[in-house]
Amino acid sequence: MAAPDPQLENLTAPDGPQPAGAAPRIVIVGGVATGMSAAARARRLDESAEILVLERGEHVSFAGCGLPYHVGGEIASADTLLVHTPATLAASLNLDVRTRHDVVGLDADARTVRVRTPDGERTIAYDALVLAPGARAVRPPLPGIDSPRVRTLRTVPDAVTLRSWVDGAARRAVVLGAGFIGLEAAEQLAAAGLEVAVVERTDHVLPPLEGELAALVTAELDRLGIAVHDGASATAIEPGDGSDVVVLDDGTRLDADLVVLSVGVRPDTAVFAAAGVATDDGAIVVDEHGRTNLPHVWAGGDAVVSTDAVTGVRRPVALAGPANRAGRQIADAILRPATARPIPAAVGTAIVRVGRLAAGMTGANRTALAAAGIAHHTLHLHPAQHAGWFPGATQVHLLLHFDDGGRILGAQAVGADGVDKRLDVLATAIRGGLGVEDLIDLDLAYAPPFGAAKDPVNLAGMAAANVLDGTLRPWHAADLDAVLASSLVLDVRTEAELATGHLPGILHVPHTELRARLDEVRAVAAGRPVAVLCQSGVRSNLAHRILRQAGFEASSLSGGMLTLRATLGRTAATRLVTPATAEVEAA
Amino acid sequence: MAAPDPQLENLTAPDGPQPAGAAPRIVIVGGVATGMSAAARARRLDESAEILVLERGEHVSFAGCGLPYHVGGEIASADTLLVHTPATLAASLNLDVRTRHDVVGLDADARTVRVRTPDGERTIAYDALVLAPGARAVRPPLPGIDSPRVRTLRTVPDAVTLRSWVDGAARRAVVLGAGFIGLEAAEQLAAAGLEVAVVERTDHVLPPLEGELAALVTAELDRLGIAVHDGASATAIEPGDGSDVVVLDDGTRLDADLVVLSVGVRPDTAVFAAAGVATDDGAIVVDEHGRTNLPHVWAGGDAVVSTDAVTGVRRPVALAGPANRAGRQIADAILRPATARPIPAAVGTAIVRVGRLAAGMTGANRTALAAAGIAHHTLHLHPAQHAGWFPGATQVHLLLHFDDGGRILGAQAVGADGVDKRLDVLATAIRGGLGVEDLIDLDLAYAPPFGAAKDPVNLAGMAAANVLDGTLRPWHAADLDAVLASSLVLDVRTEAELATGHLPGILHVPHTELRARLDEVRAVAAGRPVAVLCQSGVRSNLAHRILRQAGFEASSLSGGMLTLRATLGRTAATRLVTPATAEVEAA
C-alpha cells in the first residue's frame, strides 16, 4: 500500500458489475466527507479494489464543521479534529491515502488524472474516478483582501492559525458574512474574549432564515456583545494602527486584529470543467447516481448540483450530511450498479448554535418559494419545548410554510432547547411526503422533561389544518401597514401585557371579556374587518373564532406580538406604544 | 353557565351536520386529556354549543404526567399542576365544567346520563356524549393493599399526600411496578432523599423495553441508589414497626413508610358497559371517529381500544399524547362529521427520564411482534448523539426492529442525550410508512452540538439496509450459547479493550491485523463459522466483510460487547473473562 507509485496502466473498466476476480482501481479526488465516505464504503464492499484517495491539503477526514470550535477553544486540541490519518485509514480500511496530492488534470479518454505531488507531477490511471473536490471560500475582490490578517476557515491550519492569534495579541475581530460558519466563528471569538463585529450584506443575519426568526438570533448576538452590521458590505480592508481597518459601505470603520472571511463558497471544479466535465454555474452536473457526463467519472458533495426536494431547483448544497451520504451511494453506484439506490433530492436541513440559541431550517424558505413561483401559507407558533408546567420550559419559535394541498414546504425554528428535534421531525415529514394534517397524528415521545402531550409539531399541524379548512384565518405582521389602514386591530391580551407595548389605534378587549363586549367591538369596527392579536396567537385564534361566528370578518395575527415585534425588528421601539412613550407624547 | 342545573329535556339530536341555528348540548364525561381537548375544540368550532364537562374528581385539566415531579419537589407547587380551573375555562371557552360530578348511569335511548353530585343525583340530557373516563390504577388483591401507606399516583391529591409524607417522616419507599410512572416515582423519591426499592414482576424494569436496553436503566437505578427487585412480586403488605413491610415472593421483606402502587391501569368503563356500550376486555370499542356502538355516544383516551399501527392488534393505549389529540378529533367528528379525519392507529411512542438517562420506544417491541407473528430483524447501535469529537459526546443506545421488506416495526433508545429526538424521528418515519432505506436519506439537522454528518438514525438505516441486501450478517447476544457451541468467536478489539472483559475461548485479532492473519483465523476456525465481535459493532462489521470476501462464513455481533454485556445483565460478571478472573482461575 505504501509502495512507490508506479506509472500505472489502465485496468479493465467496470461497465456494470465487475467480473469475479477483477480488481478495479478507484481513484477518489478529495479526502473528506464524500470522498472518504466513498472510499470506506467501497472497501467494505470490495476487499480486492485498489482505492486511492488524493487530497490536495495536509489532512484527510478532518472535522471541517469543528474548525470554529477550535478557534474559540471549545475544542481544545487541533488533534481532536483529525478523525483519521492516512496511516489509520491504511490499517483499518486498506486505503491508499495521499495528502498534498493536487489533481491538476483529467484525461477521460485515457482514464488518467494528472497529479501535482511534493515529489513532482505524475499520472495516475483509474477504472472509476470519484470527484469530491468540495468548494472554495469566495474571496471578494476587495482592496486589502490579501492582508495576512484576513483568513478563511476551511482547513485545520486555518483554525490553528486563528487560534494562535486568539491566544496571542488579537483583541478585535471582524467576521465578514453572517451565515452559518460566520456566526459560529463570531460566537467562538466572542467566547474567547475578543471584541467581535459581524458584517452581513443582506438585511439580516443567517440569510437563509426568515427575517422574523433571524431577529431572535440578532438579539442573542447583541446579548453576547457581538456587534451586528447587517445590510452593510465591506468596501476595503485598510492597514490601520497596529491592526487592519474594515471599511463598510455605510462609512463605518471597524478595527480588526483579525478578519474571518465567510461570505460563501463556490464549487472547486475548474480543473474538471476544463477537462470536459459538464458543469452548471461551476457545479458539476450529475445524475441521481452521481454520474457525470463522462464515462467512469462520478462526483458528489459540495462541488455538484443537487435537486432541491421542495422546489425542484438545481443548485449546489454545501452541507456535510448529504455529502457524506452521497459518498456511500456513489460507492454503491460504482460497485453495485444494478442495485444502487439514487442519491436523494436535498431537503437542505441546517442548524447553528449561537450562544444559548439554536437556529435552523429545513426545506424551502420564502425566497426559494418565491423564486420557484410556489404559492404558500405561512404560520408562526411559539409553543414551549416541553410541558409548560415543567421546570425549564422555554419557547420554540417555529415557522411553517405549506401549500393549499397541505404539502409541507419548509420549516424554521429558533429557541434555547428542542429546536433540532422539531427540525428533524419536520425534515423527516418532508422527506416522507407527509402533509400538515399528518403532523397532527405524529405520536412523539412525551414525558414532561421532553415534550408535551400536544407537541409543537402537532400544534403546527393543527394550526395549518385550520388554515386549510378555513377555521383559522391568519393575518401577517409583514402586512401590518395595510392592516392598520383597513382594519380595526383588536388586542385581546391582558392589561399587564398591553403595558409592555402595543400597536397604536387598537381596541383593547381581553379575550375573556370578548363574548360580553361584542356590541362594543361592532361599534368601533364600524364595518371594518377586525384584525385580532394576542401575545403568541392562541387567544387571538379563539377570539377570531368568536367574532367570525358572530358575523365579523375577522383574522388572527400569526405568531402574535412575538412575531410582530421580531418582524418590526429595530423599528419596534418606534412603532409600538408603551406607557413610557405615551407619557412622552402627553408631556 | 353557573346557573343551577335544571332537569334538562332532550334536545334535537345531531344526526349529521347540525341545522343552522341549532345549539347542541355536548356532554363530556372526564375533564382531562381527551375530555378537555374535545371541549376546547368543540367551543372553537361552535360558539353556540352548550358544552358540559362532568369530572368525578376535584380538578380538571390537571397535569397528570407531572404528578411524580411534585412528589419529589422538582415541581415545587401543586398549583403548577392545575393548568386550568372551571372558572378559567368558563371565562376563556364558555365551558360549563362541573367537578365532583360522577357519572353513575347512562340511558342511551333517553339520551341522558345520571350524575352523582355533592348536591345529590340528577339526570342530564345530551345531544352528543363523549366518554373520556380514563383508566383506574390496578389494585392487586394483596393482603394489606388497603394500608393507608399504600397510594396510587393518579390525582393531584395523591401527589400532595405523597409530597407531605416525603416532607415529613417518610424515609423508606417501595414502588410496586417499574413501568413509566413507577420509575418516575422512584427517581423522584430517591432525589428527595428517601431510600427506595422498586419491585417489578417481569424480569426487567420498564417491561415494554427490550431487556438489553432495560439493563442500562437498571444500571442507572443502581447509580441512583435505588434497589431493583425484578422478577419478584409482592405477596403481602404487613404492618411493621412504625412502617409497613412489603413481602416479596422471594422472601425479601422491605420496610416501607410509603408504598407507591403503579402496576398498571384498567379502563374505567363499568358504568358504561352496564349501559350497553360495547367493550372489549373492559375497553370501549370505537370506530376510527371515536364512535361507540351507541348512537350519539363517542369515546376516547385511555378507556378505549386502539389499533396498533404496526401489529394491527386492538388494545387500549394509555398515553397522554394520543388521548389529547383524540379529543380534538372527536369534537370534529361530532360537529363536522363530513370532513372529520380518522383518529390514527397508535404508534405507541413513550419515554421516561431516569436520573441522567432517557429511555423510550416507538412502534412494536419483540413481545408484540412475536404475539402478532411478525418475523423481524433486530439491530443494535451505539453511536454518539453528536459528533464524537465535539465536547459532551455520549452514546445513544439504539435498537431497530424491521422486516424483510424494510418496514420499520419498532425502535428503542436509551442514553443521556438525544434519545427523544431519535425516537421522534423514527416515530415520524413509522407514521409516514418510510422504510429502513429511507432512513439513510433523512436530511437531519447537523452542526457539531446537535448531531453528526451521519446521524444515528442514518446509521441505523445503513446498517438495516446492509442486513436486507446481505452485506451485513448479524449475530445476536441472545444466541450466545448456540454461537459459542458452533462457531469460533473472533474478538477484533484492541488489547486494552480485551482487558476490560471478553468471552472465553475467543481468538483475538485486532481488526487492523486481520488482513495479514487470515491464515491463522482459518486454522483456528477449522471449518467452523466465525462470529466476529468488537465493542459496538462497527469494526466487527468491517472484519466480517473481510472474512466473507476471503471465503469464510462470518457474522458480526449486533451492538458488540456493549449489547452483549447488557444482554447478559447480572450474569456478565461470571460469563466474561477479565484479567482479574483469569488470575483467580490460575491461582
UniProtKB/TrEMBL annotation, chains A, B:
Residues 1-22 are annotated as: Disordered. This is FAD-dependent pyridine nucleotide-disulphide oxidoreductase. Belongs to the class-III pyridine nucleotide-disulfide oxidoreductase family. InterPro entries: FAD-bd_OxRdtase, FAD/NAD-bd_sf, FAD/NAD-binding_dom, FAD/NAD-linked_Rdtase_dimer_sf, Pyr_nucl-diS_OxRdtase_dimer, Rhodanese-like_dom, Rhodanese-like_dom_sf. GO terms for molecular function: oxidoreductase activity. Its cofactor is FAD. Gene3D superfamilies: FAD/NAD(P)-binding domain, Rhodanese-like domain. Residues 483-573 form the Rhodanese domain.
